[in-house]
C-alpha cells in the first residue's frame, strides 16, 4: 500500500508541484491584490480628506481676504480723498472770486485725477491683497499639513503690514502725482470748459487718459504695481519674510497680474461711464423744461440729418416721454460735467451707498471679478502644495 502511494506520488510529482505552485501563487496574488486594493482605498480616502480640508481652508482664506479688502479699501478711499480734496476749491468758488475760470480749470484736473486714481488704486489694492492673503494662506496650510510653525503671528503682521506703504505712506501719493501729470496733458488743454461733450466723447476721453497713464513703462500702475504698493526691502526682514516679500514681488510683476490689472482698469472706466450716465440722467430729470426741450430738438435734428425719411416728433412729446430723450446723445458742457464727475467720487466706501457712489461700485466690482479670484486661487494652489 505504501509502495503504491510512493509510486503514485512519484509518477504525479510534477503535477503536484505545478498545482501547488499555481494554488500558492493564486493565494499570494489574491492577498497582494487585496492589500493593494486596501492601500488604494486608503490613498483615495486620504486624498479626498486632503482636498476637502484644502477646500475648506481656501474658502476660509477667501472670506478673510474679502473682509480685509473691504476694510483696507475704506482706508484707501479716505487716502485718495485727502490727496485729491476739492474742499478748498469749492470754498473759494462760493466767494465768487475774479479767478473763477482758473479755479474751475483746477477743479477739472482734480475731478479727473480723483476718478482715475480710484479706478487704478482699487484694482491694485484688490490684486495685491488677493496675492498676499492667498500666498500667506498657502504657507499656513503647509504648516498645518507638516505640523510646523514657521508662520508666527508676528510674521503674519509684518507681512500683511507691507501694504500699508500704499495706503498710509508714499504709495497713493506717488500714484496721484503721476496720474495728475497725465490728466493735465490729456484733459487740461484739449478740453476747455465750454466744450460740449456726449457720453461717447467722455468714453473716448477716458480711453485716451488710460493710454497716456499706461504709456510710461517706468511708472505704469499696471506693470509697475510694486513701485506703489510695497516698500523697499529692509535689512530687518527675517529670511522667511524676505522670501515671502520676493515671491510677492514676482507674482505682482507677473504677466498674469498685469493682465488682470489692465482688464480691471478698462472695466473700471466703463463702470465710471455708467455711473456718470446715471448721475447725468438724474441731473437732466431736474433740468428746466426749456432745457430738456432744447436737448430733444437737438437730438431730433441729428436724427433727421442722419435719415431724411425719419419723422420728427414735437418737442413737447419729447418732454412728456422720457424715453425719447436718448442719454447717449445728450450734449453737456465740460463745466457742467465737472460737478457730476466730482460728485460721484466725493464719498468714500459705503456699503449702503447709492449706485452713483463710484468708489463703492469699483471696490464691489473688483472684489467679485472672476479674473482676480482666479489669480488668487492659482496663488493658493501653488503655495499650499509646494
Oligomer: single chain
Number of helices: 16
Low-pLDDT stretches are 302-324
Mean pLDDT over the full residue set: 83
Protein name: Peroxisomal biogenesis factor 3
Organism: Drosophila persimilis
Subunit structure: Interacts with PEX19.
GO molecular function: protein-macromolecule adaptor activity
Describe the structure.
- One of its GO terms (cellular component) is peroxisomal membrane.
- Interacts with PEX19.
- It comes from Drosophila persimilis (Fruit fly).
- This is Peroxisomal biogenesis factor 3.
- Involved in peroxisome biosynthesis and integrity. Assembles membrane vesicles before the matrix proteins are translocated. As a docking factor for PEX19, is necessary for the import of peroxisomal membrane proteins in the peroxisomes.
- By secondary structure, the protein is mainly α.
- It has one domain.
- It is 76% helix and 1% strand.
- It contains 16 helices and two strands.
- Strands 1-2 form a two-stranded antiparallel sheet.
- Helix 4 crosses helix 11, helix 8 runs antiparallel to helix 11 and helix 11 packs antiparallel against helix 15.
- It is elongated and about 135 Å long.
- The chain starts with a helix and ends with a helix.
- About 6% of the residues have low confidence.
Amino acid at each position: 500500500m505504501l509502495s503504491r502511494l510512493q509510486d503514485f506520488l512519484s509518477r504525479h510529482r510534477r503535477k503536484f508541484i505545478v498545482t501547488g505552485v499555481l494554488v500558492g501563487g493564486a493565494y499570494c496574488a489574491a492577498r497582494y491584490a487585496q492589500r493593494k486594493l486596501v492601500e488604494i482605498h486608503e490613498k483615495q480616502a486620504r486624498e479626498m480628506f486632503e482636498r476637502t480640508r484644502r477646500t475648506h481652508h481656501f474658502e476660509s482664506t477667501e472670506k478673510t481676504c474679502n473682509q480685509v479688502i473691504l476694510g483696507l479699501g475704506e482706508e484707501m478711499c479716505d487716502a485718495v480723498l485727502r490727496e485729491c480734496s476739492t474742499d478748498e476749491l469749492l470754498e473759494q468758488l462760493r466767494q465768487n472770486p475774479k479767478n473763477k475760470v482758473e479755479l474751475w480749470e483746477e477743479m477739472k484736473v482734480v475731478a479727473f485725477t480723483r476718478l482715475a486714481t480710484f479706478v487704478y488704486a482699487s484694482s491694485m489694492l484688490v490684486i495685491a491683497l488677493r496675492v498676499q492673503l492667498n500666498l500667506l494662506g498657502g504657507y499656513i496650510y503647509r504648516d498645518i499639513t507638516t505640523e510646523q510653525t514657521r508662520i508666527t503671528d508676528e510674521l503674519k503682521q509684518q507681512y500683511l503690514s507691507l501694504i500699508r506703504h500704499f495706503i498710509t505712506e508714499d504709495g497713493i501719493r506717488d500714484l496721484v502725482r503721476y496720474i495728475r501729470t497725465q490728466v493735465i496733458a490729456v484733459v487740461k488743454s484739449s478740453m476747455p470748459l465750454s466744450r460740449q461733450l456726449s457720453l461717447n466723447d467722455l468714453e473716448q476721453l477716458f480711453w485716451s487718459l488710460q493710454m497716456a497713464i499706461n504709456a510710461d513703462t517706468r511708472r505704469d500702475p499696471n506693470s509697475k504695481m510694486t513701485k506703489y504698493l510695497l516698500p523697499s526691502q529692509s535689512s530687518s526682514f527675517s529670511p522667511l519674510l524676505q522670501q515671502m516679500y520676493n515671491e510677492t514681488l514676482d507674482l505682482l510683476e507677473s504677466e498674469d497680474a498685469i493682465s488682470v490689472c489692465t482688464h480691471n482698469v478698462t472695466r473700471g472706466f466703463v463702470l465710471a461711464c455708467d455711473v456718470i450716465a446715471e448721475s447725468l440722467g438724474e441731473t437732466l430729470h431736474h433740468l428746466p423744461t426749456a432745457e430738456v426741450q432744447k436737448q430733444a430738438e437737438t437730438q431730433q435734428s441729428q436724427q433727421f440729418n442722419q435719415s431724411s425719411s425719419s419723422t420728427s416728433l414735437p418737442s413737447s412729446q419729447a418732454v412728456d416721454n422720457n424715453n425719447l430723450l436718448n442719454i447717449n446723445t445728450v450734449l453737456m458742457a465740460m463745466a457742467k460735467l465737472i460737478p457730476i464727475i466730482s460728485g460721484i467720487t466725493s464719498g468714500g466706501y459705503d456699503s449702503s451707498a447709492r449706485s452713483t457712489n463710484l468708489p463703492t461700485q469699483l471696490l464691489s466690482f473688483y472684489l467679485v471679478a472672476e479674473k482676480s479670484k482666479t489669480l488668487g486661487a492659482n496663488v493658493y494652489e501653488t503655495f499650499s502644495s509646494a
